[in-house]
Each structure stands twice: as structure tokens, then as C-alpha cells.
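Thread amino acids onto this structure.
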């Protein structure tokens, strides 16, 4: 067949970066194909490809994809924030959740007031806002 063997696998990102032939039993090939070179380079920079391969080898095959994905996430976070890594992102998201909870707590009394107005039939039907900017009577 022309064009080469269709079953021939393309090299993984590690082998392609190192300009080597990718062995048939390459442990990194399923998780770091050549198209994911940037992900591999991040993981390699933070952890080293040998440690990544060793970590993946020590896991059951059904857990390796999740582990590789986690390593990419952690490596990207470490490159972005070398001191805190993923923990810095987690703490930032926790702070954002707390801020949003506070905003929600501020809005809940107004929502309850508006529901009560609608239930009692006191809500204006005119969609144009009053002087305060609300289409409903002031509290």
C-alpha cells in the first residue's frame, strides 16, 4: 500500500521533541500524542518525563489518563504560579464563591419582597421603571 503502513503509530510528544523513533510500547504515547506537545512540555518542565513515565507505570491502566490529565493541570498551574500551583487557583475560586454567596445573600431579601408583591397582586404591570429604577414599588 502506498503512503506507508496505516497501522503505524505517530510518535508521542516526548519522542517527537527528542527526535527519536517512538517505540511500540511507549508508555507516554496514549496520553501525550504529538498533537499535545505543549502539554507534554509543561509536564516535562515541572516534573521531568522520567518521573511522569514512572508515575504512570505504577498506576492501573484505567487510571492513567486521569493521572496524565491531572499532571498537565498541575504543571500548567505551577508554571503560572510556581509557589502555590493548583492550590492558588483553588483558593482564588473559594474566595470567588464566598463573594458570590455574599451577593446572593444580599439579593435574597429583595427577591422575597418582590415575590410577596406578585403574590398579593400589588406589583405594577407597567414595565417602565419608577424613579428608583425598579418597575415595582419601593420597599
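Threaded sequence (139 positions):
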Amino acid at each position: 500500500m502506498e503512503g506507508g503502513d496505516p497501522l503505524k503509530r505517530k510518535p508521542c510528544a516526548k519522542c517527537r521533541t527528542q527526535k527519536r523513533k517512538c517505540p511500540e510500547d511507549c508508555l507516554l504515547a496514549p496520553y501525550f500524542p504529538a498533537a499535545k506537545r505543549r502539554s507534554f512540555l509543561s509536564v516535562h518542565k515541572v516534573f521531568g518525563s522520567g518521573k511522569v513515565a514512572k508515575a504512570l507505570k505504577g498506576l492501573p491502566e484505567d487510571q492513567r489518563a486521569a493521572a496524565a490529565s491531572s499532571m498537565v493541570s498541575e504543571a500548567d498551574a505551577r508554571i503560572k504560579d510556581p509557589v502555590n500551583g493548583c492550590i492558588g487557583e483553588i483558593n482564588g475560586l473559594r474566595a470567588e464563591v464566598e463573594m458570590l454567596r455574599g451577593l446572593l445573600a444580599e439579593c435574597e431579601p429583595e427577591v422575597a419582597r418582590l415575590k410577596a408583591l406578585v403574590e398579593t397582586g400589588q406589583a405594577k404591570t407597567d414595565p417602565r421603571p419608577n424613579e428608583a429604577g425598579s418597575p415595582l414599588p419601593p420597599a
